Amino acid sequence: SKYGDIGDITFLDSDGSELPRGQFGPYISQFGLQGKVFRHLARYMDYENVIDNLHLICCIAAAVVFVAISYLIYEKYNKLMAVIFFITFWLAPWTVNFARNLYWVEFTWFLPMAIGLLCAWKVDVRKYRIMCIVGAFISILIKCLCGYEYISTIMMGLISFLLVDFVTALYRREQKRRKLLLRTIFLMGCAALAGFIV
C-alpha cells in the first residue's frame, strides 16, 4: 500500500518491454488464517517496522515449538537424541530460512509433531491422551486454515512417535500397551482428519 495499488503493477521482460497484464484477485483455495491474524496484529505496530515485527513473531513461535520438541525428546528418550534434534533444527538451512516466512508460518508444520510427541511420552495418562487428541484436531485445523502444503507429512509427524512405540510394543509382545497405542493412534488420526475436513 505504501507504493501504490497492487492492481497497477506492471511486469517487464528482459528487454524492458511490458508483458501482458494479469489480473489479481482473492485466492479462494484456502482460508489464509495467517494473513488475517497478521493484519490484526499489524494494527498495533509501527508501520515502518510491521514486517520485521511479524517476521520476529514467526521466528519466536518456530523457536518455541523446536525447543518444545527437543525438550519432549529429552524427557521421552535421552539427552543425546534431544541435542541432535536441537542442533538439526538450529543449523538446517531450510528450517532457518522458513522460520520467519509469513506465508508458510513454519511453526504450524511442527506443532502437530510436538503434540504427538507429548502424547507418546504421556500415553499412559488418560488426561494427556484426551488433551493431545484435542490438540491434534486444533493444530491440524490451524495448519489447514493457513494452507494445505505438506499436510500428509505433517499428519505423519503427528503420529510417528506413537507408531514407533507401537512397533516396539509388538516386538516386545506387550499386548495391553499395543492395544492402548493402536487405539490412541487411531483417535489421533481421526482427530487430524477431522481438523482437515473442518
Overview in brief:
The chain has helices spanning 33-42, 50-76, 79-91, 93-99, 107-121, 126-146, 151-172, 175-197.
**What is the N-to-C order of secondary-structure elements (H for helix, E for strand)?**
HHHHHHHH
Distance between the termini: 33 Å
Helix content: 55-70%
Oligomerization state:
single chain
User: How many whole angstroms does the radius of gyration measure?
Assistant: 21 Å
Structure description:
With 198 residues, this protein is an all-alpha fold. It has helices at residues 33-42, 50-76, 79-91, 93-99, 107-121, 126-146, 151-172, 175-197. The chain is elongated and about 70 Å long. The two termini are 33 Å apart.
Keywords:
elongated, 198 residues, mainly alpha, single chain
Secondary structure layout plus pairing:
Layout lengths: L32 H10 L7 H27 L2 H13 L1 H7 L7 H15 L4 H21 L4 H22 L2 H23 L1
Helix pairs in contact: 2-3, 2-5, 5-6, 5-7, 6-7, 6-8, 7-8
